[in-house]
TrEMBL record:
Pfam family, one: Cation_efflux
Organism of origin: Neptunicella marina
Recorded topology in the membrane: Multi-pass membrane protein
Name of the protein described by the UniProt record: Cation transporter
Transmembrane residue ranges: 18-39, 45-66, 78-96, 108-128, 149-166, 172-190
Keyword Cytoplasm in record: no
Length: 219
């Protein structure tokens, strides 16, 4: 049975199940957060909702990579990293827009929605934690989930500070920190994916050389 590939198929099925759950949770939370974030005029909530959307897309990319070669998985992680990078920049642009505007975030919305999102992402983190040392596409998913929990804690903290201080700057500051967190995650994922691609290329070249050497010796 050791050569039938059953263990690989079981691992792939486990990854797919986890990623489907992560995709469903993040897609649902994006719709929930973006609507209430817009109503509450909260930079931190909008930033977190866009992070949820990015994660949902990233998990869909990771699903595509399950069961495929290491090159496919590394390229999937690479796409995910670039997507996260673009998202981080987009959030920074929105923060700059809000600095010029007169938006006043609603603290109770931020605390309530942030708490719900925190619970959702803790569930995601628990689902993915057994796969944080798997292939590169699953490691990328782990980084996203861990960053989300930190971002949600930041949203709740921003809501509390906005309520206590009666100022909007904690919302903008936390939104900026979330964008920095997203950019840091993108850097980590891109670095990991590129290293995997280099390693896969080296392994492929060594394998080709060995095949050529074996062929020559047989002649």
């Amino acid at each position: 049975m050791s050569g039938c590939g059953c263990e690989v198929e079981l691992k792939d099925d486990q990854q797919k199940t986890v990623l489907y759950w992560l995709l469903a949770i993040n897609a649902t939370m994006f719709v929930f957060e973006i609507g209430l974030g817009w109503l509450s005029e909260s930079t931190a909530l909008i930033a977190d909702s866009l992070d949820m959307l990015a994660d949902a897309i990233v998990y869909a990319i990771a699903l595509y990579a399950v069961g495929k070669s290491i090159q496919h998985k590394a390229n999937a992680a690479l796409v995910s990293g670039y997507f996260q990078l673009g998202l981080g920049v987009l959030i920074l642009l929105d923060i700059a827009r809000r600095l010029v505007g007169e938006s006043e975030p609603h603290s109770w919305f931020m605390i309530g929605v942030g708490s719900v999102a925190l619970i959702a992402n803790v569930i995601c983190l628990m689902l993915i934690r057994k796969h944080n040392n798997d292939e590169v596409h699953m490691r990328a998913s782990w980084i996203f989930s861990a960053n989300d929990v930190i971002a949600n804690l930041g949203v709740v903290l921003a809501g509390i500070l906005v309520m206590v201080l009666e100022q909007r700057w904690p919302d903008i500051v936390i939104g900026s920190i979330i964008s920095m967190l997203i950019l840091r995650g993108a850097y980590m994922i891109l670095t990991d994916a590129k290293q995997e691609l280099v390693s896969a290329q080296y392994t492929s070249e060594v394998s080709d050389k060995n095949k050529q050497s074996t062929c020559c010796n047989s002649k």
